[in-house]
Write a structure and sequence with these properties.
By secondary structure, chain A is mostly helical. Chain A has helices spanning 2-14, 26-30, 32-50, 74-97, 104-123, 127-145, 152-183, 188-193, 204-218, 227-230, 236-245, 250-262, 266-288, 293-314, 317-348, 364-378, 384-397, 403-429, 445-463, 466-481, 497-514, 516-530, 535-554, 562-584, 598-616, 620-640, 644-665, 677-703, 710-722, 727-735, 737-760; strands spanning 53-61, 66-72. Chain A has 31 helices and two strands. In chain B, 68% of the residues lie in helices and 8% in strands. Classes of the chains: A mainly alpha, B mainly alpha.
């Protein structure tokens, strides 16, 4: 299975090299990959149901417990099918949607990378690897959100999302390490086996809190929910894939996965439903007052995620079953609705619900399938959404303890959901004709394929739920609850309390919808008085203030004057070394002068006089050239002592340095203000002290003897193991290659930094 | 004040620099040379030419941008690690192929060579990027 994940990343890289002509169909071509993976997972579902597939994978750092193992059990299989199935539809959709934008190569690359990371997250059996993929999803999400990077809102939204999810990721990492300390393993199958005593361990509560912070940030729970509406800046295929069906559900996945380990305790059963319930209500409530279609969908997604977290927090068998079912339900209708919203945006040019209307005449096909998706969102039969809602209510009714509060919150949220669904359907499709009308409807097939498939799936699963229940929910449930259960889903449960609640919800929702004009005004007044906190703005303000504060404090040290930086470094180093030498009386060295030939003496005389000339010269150009002479002279000394590589490098670098200095020179003003005599004396003292202690160090370094000089090892093995006679080069590219890799990365960063600084600094210089 | 010496010298020595840099690069493993030095010498080829004439002219006849050079250099360096990981499962292990050419004798090529090539391109790209940026922004005219 390592191959499966690796293949996604390989295809991601290869996708750049697609021939020019095929660019228009790139999405379709690339969708073959998720399609094949979907078929694989689909066919493997049978074996998963029996016992699950466990792959040993690859050992990475066994001594640290870091191994790449793969687990395909019910829970992973559920997610894997969602990721690959919706992935296929998203790629097809993206093919049509992204036409005409430039930079689509990078788009598909990041989309594929995301898919690989998400799949790796749910299939991985080692918590550290899960964390790796978790961070990779945040990373790729960042690039996908700021696809339209010319817009300021896109950039700040993606940065916001990255900061929040990365902060949560850090907490998650700490939590995973705590879990390792408690249980001694990163492999969660082993952890689950030893899970009995975890809840009584003293480190349990911190572990739980840290992991929950990670989950809550990724799955947009209150109060970390505000990055999700911002993420709507992304192109719609991204919203449909990441921010409704897959990435935001990663937190839910982890919650479900770690439920056998961390769940079933009072802390879990209080904290998790609390946040989940708040999120559920807040999301639904805020979705009413939105005008942008995607914002409506974003807030309802937040509400849906809240529901999932709430159900997993309640921690009964029924609630977990409801959560798993709702996961699928939500993925189906949300992805479909996002794609529909994107299609409407493309064709009519707007996503503002007040400017749309009466589309059912011109887009009848879209209307039918949108209605199906909206019916699922509202929880009406015969869609899968109805079964989902019923199950959720049943779970809520049977919650031990706080059932009443949860039911009230749940019913209220669902009333808002019904209202929103009706609003979406009515204001967009029915009603009076809006300002914006669809322009042309060519090439709509790929756009509509996704919504059609997903809505039909919702419908068929609602009518014939046995496939879903037996093949998908049941194995998934057993991964979470760790004992086998029969899952039966039915469309009709009879006239019981749950049905009453559903009926009440729907009727109230529709009633509120018809009264919406007055209610919206009322809500706006309430919002302005009580809920005027815009979390997103607050977040941005806090970050801004923090940066300004640290700027203020660092200004004292980082004043921007290069020569003062150098002076500070030199003075402090010189003082500390000189103090050390004074204490240890280390200025005694065994100086053995060897005889050196005349030409070296002439060279040294030349160097010394050039150095003196540099310091006293009044012409800048002459000073630079004199420095160049010193550099070349040093190279010649290297040559004399047979350090040939060093000599060549010194020669070339000196040449380029002189070139750069000359370039700088021509930009400096013509008349130089020479520094005063006092300054010169100060500079001379600093330079002399620094230079002399460096000389002393160099002299002393000859005397220091280690027992096993590592150079012996290199001399012996350089030819045998590395096939090279040039030891210096062999060390650089073979023995210490990792170091060299770091060095060229630093070179790159330096060059890019210089590039950015010079290009941006147009006013100064 | 145009420096004809620099102009003619750089124009004629351009290819010499490049050939020397390639030779220096290939002999790096057994004699003084290697990726860093080779990259620097190749950079000299471009830099001197652009010092003598305009940066814009030089930019036109270089086939790739310096950013591309840097990127491909880093990629090559990373790629050279992969055979080691895949075949031996050890990080940064060097893999060597030996074959015998009729005239030259036994030749060994390995992933360190690829790594060195990556270093070569990176250093070349970095120096060219730095100097081109300086020359462009500061409107270097000879």
């Amino acid at each position: 299975m390592t191959l499966i994940i690796a293949s996604i990343f390989i295809v991601a890289i290869i996708s750049f090299f697609l021939p020019r002509k095929a660019h228009n169909y790139k999405g379709v071509i690339l969708s073959v990959l998720p399609l094949t993976l979907f078929l694989y997972f689909f066919l493997a579902a049978g074996e998963v149901k029996n016992q699950g597939i466990y792959d040993e994978g690859v050992e990475w750092i066994p001594s640290m417990g870091l191994n790449v193992t793969w687990v395909l059990d019910g829970l992973s299989s559920l997610f894997a099918l969602l990721i690959t199935g919706i992935g296929t539809l998203v790629f097809l959709y993206a093919n049509a949607y992204m036409k005409g934008y430039h930079g689509t190569d990078k788009f598909y690359f990041y989309l594929l990378m995301f898919m690989g990371a998400m799949l790796g997250l749910v299939l991985s059996g080692n918590l550290l690897i899960v964390f790796l993929f978790w961070e990779l999803t945040s990373f790729t999400s960042y690039f996908l959100i700021c696809f339209f990077h010319e817009k300021q809102e896109s950039r700040s939204a993606s940065l916001q999302a990255l900061l929040i999810t990365a902060f949560g990721g850090l907490a998650l990492f700490a939590g995973i390490i705590l879990l390792y300390i408690i249980t001694g393993s990163f492999n969660f199958i082993e952890i689950i086996e030893n899970s009995g005593d975890i809840s009584r361990h003293p480190l349990y509560v911190p572990t739980l809190i840290l992991i929950l912070i990670g989950v809550f940030t990724k799955s947009a729970q209150f109060p970390f929910h505000f990055w999700l509406p911002g993420a709507m800046q992304a192109p719609t295929p991204v919203s449909a894939y990441l921010h409704s069906a897959t990435m935001v559900k990663a937190g839910v996945y982890l919650l479900a996965r770690l439920n056998p380990v961390l769940g079933n305790t009072p802390e879990w059963q209080i904290i998790v439903p609390l946040f989940g319930g708040m999120t559920m209500f807040v999301g639904a409530y805020l979705s009413i007052s939105q005008r942008d279609l995607k914002a409506i969908l974003a807030y309802t997604t937040i509400s849906g995620l809240g529901t999932l977290v709430l159900l997993l927090g309640i921690d009964t068998m029924l609630s977990v079953k409801a959560a798993l079912l709702f996961l699928i339900v939500h993925a189906f209708y949300k992805a479909a609705l996002f794609m529909i919203a994107g299609y409407i945006d493309k064709k009519t040019g707007t996503r503002d619900i007040k400017n749309l209307g009466g589309l059912y005449k011109q887009m009848p096909v879209l209307f039918i399938f949108s209605s199906l998706a909206l019916l699922s969102m509202a929880g009406l039969p015969p869609m899968l959404g109805f079964i989902g809602k019923e199950l959720i209510y049943e779970a809520k009714v049977q919650t031990p303890g706080i059932a009443n509060l949860i039911i009230v919150l749940g019913v209220a949220s669902n009333i808002f959901m019904v209202w929103v669904s009706a609003m979406f359907a009515y204001d967009v499709f029915l009603g009076n004709k809006g300002i914006n009308q669809p322009k042309d409807k060519k090439n709509s097939f790929l756009y509509l394929l996704g919504p059609v498939c997903l809505s039909l799936l919702s419908l068929l699963s609602g009518l014939f739920p046995s496939f879903v229940s037996e093949m998908i929910i049941e194995p998934a449930l057993s991964s979470v609850i760790t004992y086998g259960i029969d899952v039966k889903l039915k469309l009709w449960h009879g006239f019981n309390l749950v049905f009453m609640l559903s009926a009440f919800t729907v009727l109230t929702g529709l009633l509120l919808f018809t009264l919406r004009k007055w209610l919206v005004m009322l809500l706006e007044i309430i919002n302005r008085k009580w809920f005027y906190m815009n979390f997103s703005e607050i977040f941005n303000i806090v970050i801004d203030r923090f940066i300004k504060f640290s700027n203020n404090k660092t200004k004292y040290i980082q004043h921007g004057y290069h020569r003062f930086y150098l002076m500070t470094i030199f003075i402090i180093t010189a003082i500390s070394v000189w103090v050390q030498i004074y204490i240890t009386k280390g200025w005694q060295t065994d100086l053995q002068f060897s005889v050196f030939p005349v030409y070296i003496a002439i060279l040294i005389f030349l160097l010394i006089s050039s150095t003196i000339f540099t310091t006293i010269s009044k012409s800048r150009l002459a000073a630079i050239i004199a420095m160049g002479v010193v550099g070349y002279g040093i190279a010649l000394i290297y040559l004399y002592y047979s350090a040939i590589d060093l000599a060549i490098t010194q020669l070339v670098v000196e040449t380029l340095t002189v070139v750069i200095f000359v370039l700088v020179l021509q930009r400096l003003p013509a008349f130089a203000t020479m520094s005063s005599v006092r300054d010169r004396i100060r500079d001379a003292l600093i330079a002399l002290s620094f230079g002399s202690f460096m000389t002393l160090l160099a002299l002393k370094a000859i005397d220091v003897n280690f027992n096993h000089p590592i150079s012996d090892y290199f001399v012996e093995n350089s030819y045998i193991k590395a096939y090279g006679e040039n030891i210096v080069n062999v060390i650089l590219v073979d023995f210490r290659a990792l170091d060299t890799l770091g060095e060229i990365t630093v070179l790159t960063i330096a060059a890019l930094g210089a590039f950015a600084l010079i290009k941006l600094n147009k006013t100064k210089i | 004040m145009k420096s004809y010496i620099l102009l003619i010298a750089s124009r004629n020595l351009r290819w010499f620099f490049i050939i020397v840099s390639i030779i220096v690069f290939f002999r790096g493993h057994n004699a003084p040379g290697g990726g860093f030095i080779g990259g620097l010498i190749a950079a000299c080829a471009v830099i001197f030419d652009s010092l003598a004439t305009d940066v814009k002219i030089i930019k036109k006849y270089i086939p790739v941008t310096p950013e591309f050079l840097i990127g491909s250099g880093l990629t090559l360096a990373l790629l050279s690690i992969l055979p080691g990981i895949i075949s031996q499962k050890e990080f940064f292990k060097g893999i060597w192929l030996k074959f015998v050419l009729p005239v030259a004798g036994e030749i060994k090529i390995g992933t360190p060579l690829l790594f060195d090539l990556g270093v070569y391109f990176t250093v070349l790209g970095v120096v060219i990027l730095l100097l081109f940026t300086l020359m462009e922004e500061w409107k270097w005219k000879f």
